[in-house]
Write a structure and sequence with these properties.
The complex is a heterodimer of chains A (about 270) and B (about 260).
Chain A (H helix, E strand, L loop, with lengths): L1 H4 L5 H22 L1 H10 L2 H12 L9 H18 L3 H11 L2 H6 L4 H30 L9 H26 L9 H14 L11 H7 L9 H7 L6 H33 L2
Helix pairs in contact in A: 2-8, 3-8, 4-5, 5-8, 5-12, 6-9, 9-12, 9-13
Chain B lengths: L1 H18 L3 H24 L12 H35 L2 H6 L4 H7 L7 H18 L3 H27 L7 H12 L13 H9 L2 H12 L5 H26 L8
The chains are: A mainly alpha (about 270), B mainly alpha (about 260).
Chain lengths: ~270, ~260
């Protein structure tokens, strides 16, 4: 009688316990590698270099944004990029090529949760250094200091979470190619070239020629950086459309990923590794 | 000297042969380099919308700087980066012992052992940018040839910085990330130094990560606008950095204790 009352905890609670354990473990793991993560932060100073170049060039007043606006724009790009950096494809490629994926397949947990947990905790580890760099920049350019509206911050955060999800799913979908090729990460390098020039990373899209800008709007890239940053700057952005586009790309990547995952696993086991 | 040359040819032939097994990689590298070159050209042109400019440099002069940058980063992908993984591997597994025992300078061996053809598209694209810019500016061939001298110094500076950082592998095996920081900072070399705001920016990119010496000085020489001060600084920096990289490697080796340590 008594034994029946000690029923299995409900699935929600079990999921919560699992998620907590997973997050705690990957946070501890990432803290161990904090030196490397800090170096990655320092390696991504491109927006800060462009900040200087654009701020100086804009002193002539030749562009649609002023010098201070360029400084704010690139500071936001720097921060946004820190939180949208995805590296699952290299990790996954390594797991497949080395055969270590087999260990993870034995566990009653889809490997994707591990990747997701380590991406999330890596972001936390980055925070202190990102804050320090930001502080340094504002100390250097005190006139660039501004306080975004709370509602804008909220909307931008929502958009950034969606962007993170879409980017993660897209790259995870591409990672599935590792089942077929040993150099799946090369596709990410090509993807990154397009991302670099169409997302607003190198310059705000409003300085692009009108025709090129319209072309970028047909891709998911501006919604990853340009529009969220504009929201933070209080310049407004097509929030509903951005959310829809990101959710759409994320959903498409999810469906494709599930299909490729099934196909890939059949191949993987047939490789006998 | 003859012996070093013979060894160099042998190193490069063997590593080229082994790299050429992956032909699909070459296609991907080509596409990626082409994408970067088109994108960078476009990004540079953005500064010249309206009546804007880049630190007073006309577009084609700035393109000369970008071409120099692309060539240099291609050269470093061909000559330098493929060796980094090897240096790390040698220190981690202790096979550096065998390198140190060879009757050849260990720094020479470690920094020339491998080359990789994947950076060649970047070199070619960089040279085409320089050529196109030089034609639009009507530069005579002789001034381009003069620019080869400071370009040689640039190569020495870039090599010395890279090898100094690579020496850190003796203490810290994740040195790849350290060189990524260097690459991230060198990205500033795409633009003439005058495009950066005066003050801290210019100081950092002249004396600490000397992109001004790497790309602006050769471009200035090609344009016959170089000042003796800049030339002297570039030559002195190249010499100093090279001597320092050798001294630092000697120093690092004192901490090398082979495997199982």
């Amino acid at each position: 009688m008594n034994g029946e009352r000690v029923a299995r905890p409900n699935p929600l609670r079990r999921a919560y316990v699992k998620a907590r354990a997973l997050c705690a473990a990957s946070l501890a793991n990432m803290l161990e590698y904090r030196a490397e993560i800090y170096l990655w932060v320092l390696a991504s100073v491109l927006p800060l270099i462009l900040l200087g170049v654009w701020a100086r060039a804009a002193e002539s007043g030749a562009y649609p944004r002023s010098s201070v606006e360029f400084i704010r724009y690139f500071l936001c790009v720097f921060v946004v990029r820190q939180f949208s950096f995805i590296w699952v494809i290299w990790e996954f490629e390594e797991l497949v090529v080395s055969g270590n994926l087999s260990h993870q397949l034995l566990q009653p947990l889809n490997p994707v949760w591990r990747f997701l947990a380590s991406h999330a905790s890596e972001r936390l580890v980055r925070l202190p250094l990102v804050a320090a760099v930001l502080g340094l920049c504002f100390w250097f350019y005190p006139r660039a200091l501004w306080l975004p509206r709370a509602s804008d911050v909220l909307a931008a955060t929502a958009l950034l979470l969606l962007a993170f999800g879409a980017r993660f799913l897209l790259q995870y979908m591409m990672s599935m190619l590792a089942f077929w090729s040993e150099r799946a990460a090369a596709i990410e390098e090509l993807w990154f070239v397009v991302h670099l020039f169409l997302s607003g990373l190198i310059a705000p899209l409003d300085v692009y020629p009108e025709s090129v800008r319209r072309l970028t709007e047909l891709t998911p890239f501006p919604y990853l950086i340009y529009h969220p940053v504009n929201l933070l700057l209080g310049r407004g952005a097509p929030f509903e459309r951005a959310a829809l586009v990101l959710a759409g790309w994320g959903g498409l990547a999810f469906v494709l990923q599930r299909w490729l995952w099934k196909r890939g696993l059949e191949r993987y086991s047939s490789m006998g590794s | 000297m003859r012996r070093y040359l013979r060894v160099l040819v042998m190193f490069w032939r063997t590593s080229l042969l082994s790299e050429l097994e992956y032909r699909l990689n070459f296609l991907l590298a080509l596409l990626s380099s082409l994408g970067h070159a088109v994108g960078n050209y476009f990004a540079l042109s953005l500064f010249y919308t309206g009546n804007g400019s880049l630190g007073g440099w006309p577009f084609f002069q700035a393109l000369l700087v970008m071409g120099t940058f692309t060539t240099l980063s291609g050269l470093s992908r061909v000559l330098l980066s493929p060796n980094l993984a090897r240096i790390v591997e040698h220190t981690r597994t202790g096979t550096l012992d065998f390198v140190l025992l060879k009757p050849i300078d260990s720094q020479f061996w470690l920094s020339t052992r491998r080359i990789s053809p994947w950076g060649i598209p970047d070199v070619l694209l960089g040279l085409s940018m320089i050529g196109y810019a030089a034609r639009r500016l009507g530069l005579p061939l002789s001034s381009l040839l003069w620019a080869l001298i400071p370009l040689g110094w640039s190569c020495v500076i870039q090599y010395s910085l890279w090898f100094t950082l690579a020496s850190i592998a003796i203490w810290y095996v994740k040195v790849h990330n350290v060189t990524e920081v260097l690459n991230g900072l060198l990205a500033a070399g795409r633009y003439p130094i005058d495009a950066l705001p005066p003050g801290a920016y210019r100081f950092v990119f002249t004396f600490i990560v000397p992109v001004a010496l790497l790309t602006t000085v050769p471009a200035r020489v090609a344009l016959s606008q170089a000042t003796p001060g800049w030339l002297a600084l570039a030559a002195a920096f190249a010499l100093g950095a090279f001597v320092f990289s050798r001294a630092f490697w000697r120093f690092a080796l004192r901490y090398y204790t082979s495997a199982s340590s």
